[in-house]
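For homework, think about our next protein:
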Amino acid sequence: MLKFRIRPRPSTLAFIREAWKSPSFSLMDWIHGYVYGRWTYLYIGIGKGNHPLAKIIWPLVSFFHRFGRFLPASTNASNQTTFSDTYHGKVISVDEAKKLVTVNREIVIDNLEKVIPYTKARSIILKNPENIVVLDCPCRLSSPTPCLPVDVCLIIGEPFASFILEHHPHRSRKITETEALTIIEQEHKRGHVQHAFFKEAMLNRFYAICNCCGCCCGAIHAMKGGTPMLASSGYIATIDPELCDGCLACVHFCQFQAIAGERNHSVTVDTEQCLGCGVCVDKCKNSAITLTRAPHKGAPLVVEKLLAGGH
């Protein structure tokens, strides 16, 4: 049930103040961001098509698509915004995910067009980055048989961490950097992918690290359906056929279904499907897989380089 308060919560007022500083952030953007943050589980459930309201909402979305508010990627014309431009994730290595949750100073990095290949929501602005909140994953909880554990979404910095904590007290908790690192490490061991998520309605910037699985993640489902919500890490997996013994561990753990093969035979990588997450590298007992830089896939998100001023 949706509940409304006459008096705004402190975190809501903080979100308003932060939004007010951005001249390009409209009232509709703020309303969108508030709805997304306040009713996250409803929003994601509808987005994935798993909520009963999806049957009502998606025809309305299709209506706006036809009139050019958002266009599918396959029909996108110049100067027009796609859904993925407004809401997307960047595949990052487990090491870079760890660095993002251990940035101990405020940073402002704009115009990451080489790293974040979308027209909107491509800034990293961290305020009070030591404030980290873990949220029960909306994608997993909207799935009939969710992967466990569900408390794996990391909200980084302000005003987002306090907003989520205050509006979802039973689904979130404040954690330390050490706890955040442990969550990332454990999820990586489970074969899940680390994504840095950006959203136009969340002040046009990075706000969370999600640990995603192909069975539950709405963004990975969208990718499989042709909506390019995820940007490559900038690498692709490369197989050494001399070392590969066809154990198929990499096939099992690939969340993007980019690796195929038969048991006891060397596997192959679909370079179009591969987003260079590196999960397969750590799952290969023979060290037969390496990540190779792929310039056509975009630039990697390297925290140290960004902090030094290089894109």
Observations:
- The first helix runs from residue 10 to 20.
- Residues 67-78 have pLDDT under 50 and may be disordered.
